[in-house]
Amino acid sequence: MADDRDDRILIRSRWGTNRYVFNFRNPVACVVFAGLALLACGLLYASAHPDAPQWEEKELRSAVKKATAELSEESQIGPGLPGDGEVLQSRIAGHGPHSENLLSSDQEARIVVALASPQPEHDYFGDSVEEADYTITADGTNTALCLTVTALTSKYGYSSVSFKTRNGSCPAT
What we know:
four-stranded antiparallel sheet, two-stranded antiparallel ribbon
């Protein structure tokens, strides 16, 4: 006749203590034990390996400098067009830590480019100067950069775009 102890998942220890232990004669107990062991290993791995690299101050400064140099040469975007914050965000993310190993959406989510000044109106038919301030922050660092974008417009788009970076958040206007 089978022992009554073979059916239960947890049984009292035979070593004289009052503790309960897994009954390894029961297949359900073996599956529960293996599942708990895998869960513990997975949690330890996840805590030791963050899902994406964090930004450091020097990496953020370097990425902003490279992205603004590219955008200044192209003269394609300026502060008067909607969506320029997203363009800045994706360009900065492209120069970030391990950007070639991550999906761009993962890296872009770790960067925040916020317009800190009123959106200038774009003059599509005349020459003017447009200027806007953006505050740039990134996960992993408490550094904030104020990026001032100045663009000279002409009838055919932007004739020149310049960028100026300062430490700290941009003052709200």
